[in-house]
Amino acid sequence: MHGDELSILMRVCSRYAPSRMLSFNMAHVVVALQLMGRLGRVSRAMLMRELMLGEGSVKTMIKHMKMHGLIESSRAGVMLTSKGKDLYARLSSMIVAETSIPKCSLTVGESNYAVRVKGIANAIRSGVEQRDAAIKVGALGATTLVYRGSMFIMPGSNNNVYIKEQDAIDRLNELMPEEDDVIIIGSAYNVKVAELAAKYAAITTLLNMLHHNNHGFVTNQ
What we know:
Layout (H helix, E strand, L loop, with lengths): L2 H10 L13 H14 L4 H8 L3 H13 L3 E4 L2 E4 L1 H11 L2 E7 L9 E7 L10 H9 L4 E8 L2 E3 L12 H9 L6 E8 L2 H24 L7
Antiparallel strand pairs: 1-2, 3-4, 4-7, 5-6, 5-7
Helix pairs in contact: 2-5, 2-8, 3-4, 6-8
């Protein structure tokens, strides 16, 4: 299980008395880590733009990430420390691929973003949990697919999902899913919100999986 990584994300997103309610969540931290992992050093302005957060929220998030030794900052911007790079690498072994998805028969919004989460099919029940997590962060909803027997199937079904739009099929295939992987598609009015929603739903699913595993449930890993 990925308890250490998820625990760090939860602590970064915890309030410290007497602080106000935080306006960033674990998905924002994940995207920030990914940006720094790919680009090296990034500016606060880029984080504000890519995360759709205000300056104060980004400053607070940076402060929390620095408190946990994940990043270091200078006038030129912020970058990952060795601990941050390690966390980024571990998260990349969980959320292993991602892409935008065109509007199609599967999605519930104009803008859609899919993430492939490694080997967690047994943690998926009906897909309602992922939908609710996406809505919680401002999305319209989420669609969850399980990859089994070389097919994309809906949770609780053994039938191949019918997708009439070839461009959507092509995008899903680009994720190169493997047996028991899960695809979560966040849907929103804006692709950045859709991305945050898909990643928040993925992290929430991993946390629930860890919780159930710790209480004696058998999950795929």
